[in-house]
Amino acid sequence: MTPGTPATTRSTQAGTGHPAQPTGPTDPGGVGTGGRDNRSAIAARRRRRLIGLAALLLALVAAAVASIAVGAKPIPLGAVWHALATPTGTADDIVVRSLRIPRTLLGVVAGIALGVAGSLMQGHTRNPLADPGLLGVTQGASFAAVLSIFALGLTGVYSFVWFAFLGAMIAAVLVFLLGSAGSGGGGGPTPVTLALAGAAMSALLYALTSVVVLLDQQSLETYRFWQVGSIAGRDQGVLGQVLPFLVVGLVLALVNAPGLNALSLGEDVARSLGQPVLRTRVIGLAAVTLLTGASVAACGPLAFVGLVVPHVARAITGPDYRWLLPYAGLIGAVLLLLADVLGRVVARPGELQVGIMLAAIGAPFFIVLIRRKRLVRL
């Protein structure tokens, strides 16, 4: 027996001549129990996340039922079911099918879009205080909407929704180009240049919008109701106009999730892992543009959804965007519907627009967020 020989090999079992077995934990199949425990932990975490998604779906159903039943004219649940299953043309049937259902569906898709877009925006800019409007999308839609009112005399949401969406797209493209030019090296925009370009573009478009509404009283009257942010008074035609863009945006967001996970480790690490950084950023920003532009065009600016919801979802799921995005979408839809229902309750028989209620809910959260000693690092 020579000195310096490892303990696991220099000792033998008495009388057998076989080496002693390693002291680490093993299983009969030669696979360490540590690996088995790790697989069990991963499976348990996945199970908890799936249960969470199911709970959020149930919460969304409950919020949708409340959105259909609660309003200036309260409708019993039995009458709601009758209107959905066997409508006969009663007053309750007309209210439910013509007013409440389109409003609820628009709230669901807008909440999902803004929640997902906010998560993508915070991930791509590595900024916990970023929201979808950082790309200039909101102000681009606002400027195009008020310009169409001023120049073409359009007065209804159904009329200028396309102009608002086009303005959002153009603003986002300009911000991306400015951010890319400011980054140098031809590698696409960096989080810093993107934020700076978005802030500059938003300020410019806000100033131009203010000039137009000050020049024309009709533009001011129409624009101020749209600017508050609301899902009331939108028929199924408005939802049908923006729904294809929302679907494409959601698909791009899900495709972007694995790449965003790699980018969260840093661009250098992502490149070393073979991740195409520029393509990942382009896909993510295209998804943000489609989701935010469509929702803003249909509902007007809805503040704080894209800022608040990602933080709530991240606290539940952690930083994995494959789970964060579905959670953020569902939480966004539930939040928007509950805010809309609350606005009908607190001001009955009238109602407060959902944009006002979201500001009342989101502003305290924003204050708490910025006063935290240690912000979430993205």
TrEMBL record:
This is Iron complex transport system permease protein. Residues 1-15 have a biased composition (Polar residues). Residues 1-37 are annotated as: Disordered. Belongs to the binding-protein-dependent transport system permease family. FecCD subfamily. It is found in: Cell membrane. The chain crosses the membrane at residues 50-72, 133-153, 160-182, 194-215, 242-263, 283-312, 324-346, 352-370. Keywords: Cell membrane, Membrane, Transmembrane, Transmembrane helix, Transport. The keyword Transport applies. CDD domains: TM_ABC_iron-siderophores_like.
